[in-house]
C-alpha cells in the first residue's frame, strides 16, 4: 500500500476500518469505539507527517511502534471532537493501554531476545488480563458517554502531552484520511 508496515498495520488499517464502520456505529443506540494504544505512546517523538512512512533513512522499529500508538491515542481524541461537532452523542471513542502482555510477537526474534523475553514474561499480563481495559471501555456502564480519553488498568489516565495537542490531532486525522483515500471532512 506504500506505507511503512508498522504505521500501516498499527494505525492506518484500524483508522480505515473505523471510518468505514462509523456509519453503522452511529446507528447504534450506544456505539463504542476502542483504539488499542500503548503506554509506549509516551515515548514517541512528535509525528512528522511528511516523513511518517519513511523507512529508508535511520529507521528504528521501536520508534515506529511508539509513533503508531501515539497516533491511535490522537485519533481517539480527534474523532471524539469531530463527533461532538457533528452532534453525535451516541458514539464514544477512547484509547486503551492493555498493559505489557505475553504474546507470540517474539516468535520471529532471535534466541537471545527470546530468552530475555521469557524472563520478562514473568512480569507480564496474560492475554486475558490484557483484554480487561478494552472490555471495560467497550462494555462498562462507568464509561458511558466518556469519549476522547485514554485508559489503562480500567481507569482514566493522562496521555502524553503530544496526544493533547489539538492542532496536531486534527492534522493527523486529516493526513490519515488522505493516506487511506478518504475525503477530508
TrEMBL record:
Oxidoreductase among keywords: yes
InterPro entries with a match to the protein in the record: NAD(P)-bd_dom_sf, SDR_fam
A GO molecular-function descriptor: oxidoreductase activity
Keywords: Oxidoreductase, Signal
PANTHER family on file: PHOSPHATIDYLINOSITOL-GLYCAN BIOSYNTHESIS CLASS F PROTEIN (PTHR43157:SF31), PHOSPHATIDYLINOSITOL-GLYCAN BIOSYNTHESIS CLASS F PROTEIN-RELATED (PTHR43157)
Origin species: Pristionchus entomophagus
Name the UniProt record assigns to this protein: Dehydrogenase
Signal peptide as annotated in the record: 1-27
Keyword Membrane listed: no
